[in-house]
Amino acid sequence: MFNNGAPITLDGDQSIPFRFQSSVRDTRGSGAGWTVTASTTPLTFSNAITTDFILDDASPLVITCAGSCTNPGALTTAAPGTDMVTASPLPLVTAGIGTGLGGYTIGTQGNFLVPSTAGSGATTGGAVTITISTP
């Protein structure tokens, strides 16, 4: 098993960090809003044990302006510690009506557990699909 190219040695339960970045640029000028969602599948180890992706407890979403933007503090974000493996897409960031104009960079970070009982060999799943939608 690998984490960003580094092998993971199965030696007790291990919390492995993850992070990815998304960009949103709303230049419509209407202030209609938008939502960034994540659809995530669990990791399934070779012995059929699964593990979920969990948003970081301290800083799950770091939002910065990319160029010019309106108040990034007005955006609604997913709660720290939220499980990303859900039945329907998880809203990570939402810009309500009148917010979200301009460009934003959204850093998402969290972790997943590699249990000591995970089997060695092929691991499947763990796909995160990001969707940006408008009302």
From TrEMBL:
Organism: Dictyobacter kobayashii
Highest taxon above the source species: Bacteria
Protein name: WxL domain-containing protein
